[in-house]
Sequence to fold (320 residues):
Amino acid sequence: MNTTGWAGRIWRVALFTVSMLVLTAASGGDTRKWKSIAEDGLHDGDNPAATALQSPGEALKMLPPDGAGNQVNWVKALRDGYVKPRTTLNETTPVQTLDADILMKRTVEMPYVRFPHLAHTEWLECSNCHEKIFKSKAGATPVNMFQILQGEYCGRCHGAVAFPLTECNRCHSVPHKAAKEKP
Amino acid sequence: MNTGFRFRRDAGMRARAIALMIMGLGMLLSGNGVAEYGDVVLNKRAEREGMAPVVFPHWFHRIRFRCKVCHSELAFEMRAGANQVTMAEIVQGKFCGACHNGTIAWSTENCKLCHSGAPNLPSRIHGSHETLGPGRW
Fold:
């Protein structure tokens, strides 16, 4: 047994521990940050509401993370029961959901777009989209990316309230090859 | 003549132009974001009539209500500034007043909780550090 061997072993153990600590901090730790009400540039800091209102981080840090928008994966938050938003105010209002995906293929060399009705109708009513924004016939609406970026079609909500348009892959999620393999 | 090839090439350039447009503006905007994503300012009349602009937080309300409650049952048009919201109608139970009536949520006496905006804010929706809202990249 020689001392340099021991020193080397201790050194390696120390290095391993430190790198594990760094790794867990990077992966497990929640690094999301939200502006407080008082410093968000929108609320008047002199108004008593600036301290009375809830700051977004207090509530949103409890919800499943996402990289953009509110930094919350709202689809997951709803499905896994993190939030339980009311569906109607009036008990007699009819509620509808629809589980049907639409494959949108006019995407040039970007992957095709999969539009999931279910994730949308869990939050929204059919009339929020049909017939004003989208026709109820696959391929009938002249959707394109420039108009979406202008706040039309999908861009009515995505870029405003639902996850923003910087998240290309969440819409353009179907590689051309995968679509061909399916019957 | 090989038009197929030309089309593919132009289409690719279009895709890259869109991506560049978004990334460029993303970088410009990063770091100096204001508001929480989805916050709406309503200030068509409030400030003219001596009250601070109204700030409506989507994130706070969507934890408690689905979009369809406001945008279908209560018929809020999905376009910032498109609804003719007046204080008189709110007090009568329309718009925000359908809930802010002392039963579902605190009542309209709490003026400053809604009229909480900084001076001179225009009516519009706010994005986040990636986007300023639809059509504002």
Q: What stands out?
A: The longest strand of chain A covers residues 101-104. The two ends of chain A are 67 Å apart (CA to CA). DSSP finds eight helices and two strands in chain A.
